[in-house]
Amino acid sequence: MNLDLYFYEQIGSRYYLRITRLGLAAIMLLTVVPIMGILFLLAVNTNSPAKNTNVTITTLPASDPLPPTVIHQAPPPSFPKMRKRAVASLPQTITKPITNQSITNEQPSPQATQSLPGKFSN
Prior knowledge:
Elements: E1 6-11, E2 14-19, H1 21-47, E3 93-95, H2 101-104, E4 113-115
Antiparallel strand pairs: 1-2, 3-4
């Protein structure tokens, strides 16, 4: 006795899916019987009259109402403080060194200054 629901049949180099009679009976039982049951229940319930159902909702009065609880929001997280780095200060002007005039016997010239470019310029 063969209890398979399906099998593959080879014809030439191709395979075909075949369903056995037991497989067909299982498909019918699992699909057609529940559909018939649903239709039967629908037919039986439509003939019965609608019941008067009390749809009003009553609540019990509260004896001691509690005050609403206030939920406070947590403060945002603080970020770690950054350390300030020491910034080396640059001189505003650069002066030329004074040479020993007694050795060179030159006329004294006025001391020249040179300003730095960028944000330090006057």
